[in-house]
Each structure stands twice: as structure tokens, then as C-alpha cells.
Give the backbone structure.
Amino acid sequence: MTTNPPYELYPEYLNQVFDEFGKKNIEAWLIGPRARDLAAELPIIDAASFDLTVDAALATIESIFFELFSVEPQTSKDDRPKLLTFKVPKTDDDGYVTFNVGPFRNYLPPLRSLRGQNLTGIILDLATREVTVQAFAYDSQGDMIDPFGGSLDFADKLIRPVFPVDTLFRESASWLLKIARYVGRYGFDAAKEVRTAADRDAANILDVPRDIWRKEMDKILCGAHPGKGLQFLAESRVLSFILPEIQAMYAFGDGGSQHKDIWAHTKQVVSNSDATPVVRWAAMCHDMGKVWTKQVFRDDKIHFFRHEDMSALLFEGIAKRFDIVGEDYERIHYIVKNHGRVNLYRDDWTDSAVRRLIKDVGDALDDLIAFSKADLTSKRADRVEMIRALLADLQIRVMDVREQDALVQPLPKGLGTQIMERFDIPAGPKVGQLRNMLIHAIEIGNLEPNQDSEVYLSYLADLLVDSNQDD
């Protein structure tokens, strides 16, 4: 039986877990975000979640947590889960501490460079973590194991695969996209030798199945730092092979003083937008048509007339290449083609104008408003503030109009025309006044709503007779 005194930098719950595994002579290691926190010398005493890898089967892990905390693992979506998640109630408040615990991993990709490597135990487990910044761990006493130098890469903010990079992209070209995904996840740069090898072997991405292109691009775009991931793909020339339309923006240049840097703007819009594949694909593609529509006029002004339409046309090809179909295709294509539509809004619009916008763009309106907010990258603070205020006002107006239109109208349709005919009144404010009189009568209980038109016409006739007698 192996027992150790509690480690002072660990919270009580984590020490309890380590102690219980130790009592059963089961090797356990802290990995993941809390391990990286420790490497950065950040406290984890108040952390709410912990990831552990242990030398035990899932059934043993489940049994230990039940003995220790009387908790069952959370229901998994997978029929054969690779780890278990436990919500352990805190003793001092109503919250929970989450533990994600899995058995040691024991598989490696079939790379020739790994042949003959006799890796076992925790070293083998860490080798499966793909990049070095994920491949170090801490034991019950806070001692680190770091066989691949991941803590140094983490300190230097570098992404480097655990596997030898000199042949990696030749043996498994999907790693070109994986590196971009990790660059986008952490916001770090790829190590120099990684960038060199990626540029050399970029064309190998053509050997990767298209479904993997799509899956990895979704992850890159939805990462915490998607602009970094896209920059790696552009600098390594991977985009030239899978998304030449996007690579063209990278090569387009910033236009000097003539126009804003479209590539920098695109990366910023992607980062600003909601982290969902549909919105971020639209953000990446919305301005790519500018490369083809740029015009310089005699006054040296630059225009990109019809760039939205051109971007939408280019997206059609991208969608076929990446198998973007159905609702996802329709939403992305509509946002790209109409992304400037809501920017036409001004605060002097009538409710009828807002209603026409709602009708014209349909279910895409919320997507367009959200996109327009992300599209604000101007360096002019006054302009950004003005547009933000307009978009906020538009959202409120849209909500108000939708609420009004959702209400059951108390008067029958066509009543206005009947009023004009019965009382020989031309179209104009007088008709609206009479309708308002009827609505007021309904509100105070003098009339019932949704009656036959004749009920309301007779009521108005009586009012008009009384009014004429008073005169």
C-alpha cells in the first residue's frame, strides 16, 4: 500500500483522490489544464475541474469514486467511453468539483518513426497526447514527469508534436491540419522546425480524405484563437491546396493606404464571431470576393462592387469541396451574400421598414445581426460605437415588432377598407383614428375582440351620430 502526506498545493478533494488510488497501489497522474496551470505556477486550490490518467480499468475507477464520494459517473454519449466524469459535491457550498478520469492510454499511431520504441505506462500515455504541451503530468506530491519537454514548450508558447517532425507530415499529412488546430486552440506559434517541415510537405494535404479536411477546419475555426490557426495554414501554404480562395486574401496584401488589410480583417472577424461552424465559415469567406472585384478609380479610390455576390459564388465551390450541404450550406451562403444588408439600418426607419427587413431576410436575420457585430474591426472608435448602437437599436426594434406581430389582432382584417366604404372616408389618418377608437373600446371592455366587422361598424356609426348631435 502506497500513502503520502497531502500535497499543500492541491485542494482537499484532489489529495483524497490521489490518496485513495495510492492505497490501492494504482499509479495516478494529474494532466490537462491543471497540469498546465502548475507549470505556469498558477494556483489550483480553488479549481473546479481536474483531469487524471490512472493505471486502472474504468470499472476500478468507478468503484473508487463511489467508495470515496458515493457518486456515480455522469452519463456518457459514447457506448464505450474512454474516460469517466464525476461530479463531486463540495462540503462547504452547493457547488461541485468535476473529475475526468481515464485509464492509461496504450495506443500510438502507426508511424515508421515510432517502430522499435518500447514505451510503457505513463510515458506511453503521454506520447498519445499528440503535442508536447499536453504531454506532461504531475504525481500526488507535485512532482512533474515531462519526457518530451512539453513544460518548456508551454513556457515558450510553442506547439510541437510529440512525434519526430522530420517525417511526420510525410507519413500522416492530416497532421498539417492538426498542428493548425492546436495553434488555434492555445494561441501559440508552431515551433520553427514544424513550420519548415509543414511548408516543405504542404502538398501532401491532397492525400488526406475530404471529410478530415472538413472536420479539422471546423475545429480550427471554432478554436479560441482561430486567426492563429489560419495564419499557420497560410504561411505553410496548406491553404493554397485546400482553400485557394482564402489563400488569395493572404497574398492580396494590405493595399497600403488604399484599403484595409483584408486578410487581417478576415481573421479578426472570425475571432469576433460566435464560435459555431456556420458563423465562422461565413466569417472566413465573407470578403474573399474582394480579391476579384477590386477596382481603382481615377480619384485613386478603391471599390469592391458586388464582392458579396462574388464571395457567395466562390463559397459554392468551397461547399462542394468540403461537403457543406443542407441547412449549413444555406445559412453560410446567405450570410456571405447578404452580410451587408443590416448595415443599411438607420434609427429613423419606421416599423414598416423594420417589418420589411424581417420579411425579406426571414430566419437569417439573427445570423446577419450577429455577423455584423463581429464585422466591426474599424480603428475609428467613434464609428465602431455608432454601428454598435445602431445594431443594438435594430435588435430591440426587431424584438418589439415580432412581439407586436405575435399578438392576436383584436380587429378583423379588411376593417379599414370597410370603414372607408361605410362612412365615405378617404384613406388617411382619419381611418387610423377610428380603428384606434375601436381598439380603445376593446381595451376598456366596451367591445369584445374578434367580432364580425358589422359589430364594429355599428359601434362607430353610433359614435359618429352622437358626435354629430353634440356638434
Notes: The longest strand covers residues 96-103. The radius of gyration is 32 Å. The chain has a mean pLDDT of 89.
